[in-house]
């Protein structure tokens, strides 16, 4: 079942591969045979076979680790053997133990599970072929987007199915507490890293040497999540560069000829953790991963999760990224096993690469029509008549496509059918009654429900829905920032508009994936896109709304409304907060409570997103960046010092938009 | 005093004995054919020639190619049967049929013998620009009795070294800027006179030794508007004295390597300095480029061998006042001279260390399962400081290349033996034919010690999975060194262009550098539209305490390329960038010349470059030695 996902007539769109359903084959033939079939993937051409079994020894005896062990033992006065032992222990705690038997077991079970959960799992096979070639030519790093626990299971499953080398996956330590599953994951290629180990030199050394050894020897593709954790909001998270730094270093130091980074975009019709995420964002703590918890999740299996899309992007060569940017000869004067802080150019490169890769992930993320419907429903909290919704969705589809969205909405299908299918799949989020569609949120408190609980209930619905709207935000964000700037700027002169744009761009640089330092490019891109859809007219000096541009600009502005409002709430909170030494970990609950009070008092209507901890944290990060808040470390506590003047002027500024 | 005479008497006897031994050895070579002397690989000049005979005439073109490497009578060709053949009588390979060369050549480069790119057969004299002569300068030279000529052939011959682009242009009959005059000083005083006159008339001097430069050092700078005079040192080729008490020899710097060794051998001595170019390169050239010899493990590189240097500069003559073996008199002024690449003056006389000829020489070879194991072995040999006179490790491609040059075997038995060997190594020992690589060895010294040394090295090799693979393989490896340059000319007859380049690198980076540079070459060729994967290969040719010298060969088939030279130059450039990025040096022994000048600042820092510049400014303020190398 191939589907063309782009219209080749539009030259503005990138060429994208076709997607095939990989489950189709599984539905036709025996899963057991699939699990037991001959598995002989092509491996890295430079793979030194003897090192595969000796990985542990190679890491523990490596010059780099030995160097740090020596340092640590000198620093804390412990015997070298003890430190060595500790390193060995850390490595054993961390290391994967890939067993083909376990992989086969997973292949069998997951075949069953995936067939139940998903109608189809569509993969771009050309991407798989590119990956296969890349794995043979260079050490490969797989960088999937992270929206669900399913992500890495699915990745390994796909690679197994297509007879590709199985990756080793950096996973958070939290899985380890699930005794059996943790071990199973380990045997299917996961290795476990602690969430934070900033100061622990030895841990860092063991970990980075482990990863680099696997990479250098071409042992297996390394897989990790740039975003660091699952995004609860459906938006991509600001990338973490720690691991990316580690995997790029062997190239900088000349230990490998090149490294290929392969962005992988995984998107879901429905995310398994949907409402769980919304609750988490609202402060209901994340349940600890336990095996029994996972078993309880069995009921999940009974639901329909629609289609899953996996798109393997073009491999990005680290060598070509670094071409002319990083002088590798700077590593000539120090033995390579001695840790060296990368030069500024290398740091900048890694940071930029991380953003670029996340953007590549975003751009290749398959978007379902439902994301458009959810967007429209959120903008119309009072509900919409179905025909209006359909009409608007068709309009929005055209807009999204002209902005280059990877929208899975075939030309041939009638709008009614497409919107209907989305509504049916997400009946828990949107309700159709009497020809009118609206978000499925409670109107009146249930029996024994407090007003607070009702507000939270509603918030869960809104945030769940928003997680779908958020998936498509990356398509609209730049034009949206420009639309807001256009309205606020004092004149239509481009430089003034840009000043406004740049302000918003800076404020929201933690909220959306906006590559550092690229505000000018982003501005130009936004101008181009709005010009292309005839919403604005550009001249040498000016940029003005065109006659028919009103609807487009209004829609784009409305997209940013929840964020503008939410940020204002955070500013207000900080101005009103009387506590001098606000502890950082108290910030989110306090801000949430403040927003809740506003909602209950009716001051803040329809802005449930202000309750989201994600938004609050991003707003805080922006305030820190804008120096309205300073973080002060006292002991092991971080407290926030608020510059009230700056915070309130920021609030005023945001109010003008 | 009696004891003194005793000693000198004893030494005289010893020297005589050595001479006899040496004589035996040489006879062995001629008698056995498959002898063990290193000399066997190089040209064999008739022994009967008197010691004073020069092997380099003023008219070099009489015996040497004007547009290719080496002697006119020696060249590779594919005969009518399509078999490879090496003509002439000078080399061991001369007159032999090389049955596997064609297949290797076609398979490696994707060429066909149908597609030829023959060179322009003769030099078109009319294409040579007329000389720009400073008449009074020429007149005064004549008065001083210095030989000079502005014969076009001679000028063209001295307008180039052996970089690919230089030879490529000549084959196409393209002549660029050439010197306006060639002068042949006979002695130090002649040089003093020439330099004086050059200063007086503001003439640009370019010293010319053996003409084997591969750094564009001999190219006349295009921006040079003055009259350019090539100062050919070939006639200053006498051994002035041998000091047996101190084991030194004092030689005029124009002598070429093979003559120096041969003449010393006749007295029972050698310098042991054997760069690959020693058939043609000169002592002065070695000094000016910081040359390195194959057997440096025993004898040292040029900087270790030189005791005293005399150089004529525009400021006057520079030399030390004594021949003390080591001095603490500020920075060693020799190090301003060594590596100055003809930018400061002309080296006229050199005192060098000599050694008695070794009693015994033995080749050897070791097969390793892969390159990595081979490098580990060389590293261990270096760590234990037990490197033989020469130890070199060829990668798999070069090993196969070496095999392609195997002459026709004379008997079924030999080929059967070869088959058996191959079977043993690949099947019995499980070596992968496409991974295995070979180290070639040369031992020298007392027979007893050589055998002991040999055992030590083979024992180390065994620890790294190395198998002794016989003397013959070893010897063939060294032979390759001397014929490789001839092979490039063959390639150029069939759309194949190539070059070698070298670097030195710390031990821990050897493997990474080799892999990355080879891969970079392949990648760049592909990106620049080269149709067939290039031949990209390397060998580790020297070991040091702290690193190794790595030598690369790189060649490709340029059919279908609009501007092959440009592609070639870009690829070489990128390869050098890759070397530098991987911790390699700008050059181990080829020098900088004009080819690698752009990286000098990076290589020695701005201050370092400034130091060198200020020396140049003091010594030669008017840039009389204007070849514009190095700085």
UniProtKB/TrEMBL annotation, chain A:
Source domain of life: Eukaryota
GO CC annotation, single: peroxisomal membrane
Signal sequence extent: none
InterPro entries named among the record's database cross-references: GPAT/DHAPAT, GPAT/DHAPAT_C, GPAT/DHAPAT_LPLAT, Plipid/glycerol_acylTrfase
Pfam family, one: Acyltransferase
Cellular localization per UniProt: Membrane
Organism of provenance: Electrophorus electricus (Electric eel)
Example of a GO biological process term: fatty acid metabolic process
Domain Phospholipid/glycerol acyltransferase, residue spans: 140-269
UniProt entry tagged with the keyword Ligase: no
Protein's name in the database: Phospholipid/glycerol acyltransferase domain-containing protein
UniProt xrefs under CDD domains: LPLAT_DHAPAT-like
TrEMBL record, chain B:
A biological-process GO annotation: ether lipid biosynthetic process
Positions annotated to bind substrate: 488
GO cellular component, one term: peroxisomal membrane
Region (Disordered): 35-59
Pfam annotation, one family: FAD_binding_4
Catalytic residues in the record: 551
Catalytic activity: a long chain fatty alcohol + a 1-acylglycerone 3-phosphate = a 1-O-alkylglycerone 3-phosphate + a long-chain fatty acid + H(+); 1-hexadecanoylglycerone 3-phosphate + a long-chain fatty acid = a 1-acylglycerone 3-phosphate + hexadecanoate; hexadecan-1-ol + 1-hexadecanoylglycerone 3-phosphate = 1-O-hexadecylglycerone 3-phosphate + hexadecanoate + H(+)
InterPro entries: Alkyl-DHAP_Synthase (IPR025650), FAD-bd_oxidored_4_C (IPR004113), FAD-bd_PCMH (IPR016166), FAD-bd_PCMH-like_sf (IPR036318), FAD-bd_PCMH_sub1 (IPR016167), FAD-bd_PCMH_sub2 (IPR016169), FAD-linked_Oxase-like_C (IPR016164), Oxid_FAD_bind_N (IPR006094)
Binding site for FAD: 207-213, 289-292, 341-347
Subunit record text: Homodimer.
Site (Important for enzyme activity): 392
Record organism: Electrophorus electricus
GO molecular function, one term: alkylglycerone-phosphate synthase activity
Cofactor: FAD
Protein name: Alkylglycerone-phosphate synthase
Keyword Lipid metabolism: yes
Highest taxon of source: Eukaryota
Primary location group: membrane
E.C. numbers: 2.5.1.26
Domain FAD-binding PCMH-type span(s) in chain numbering: 175-357
Keyword Metal-binding applies: no
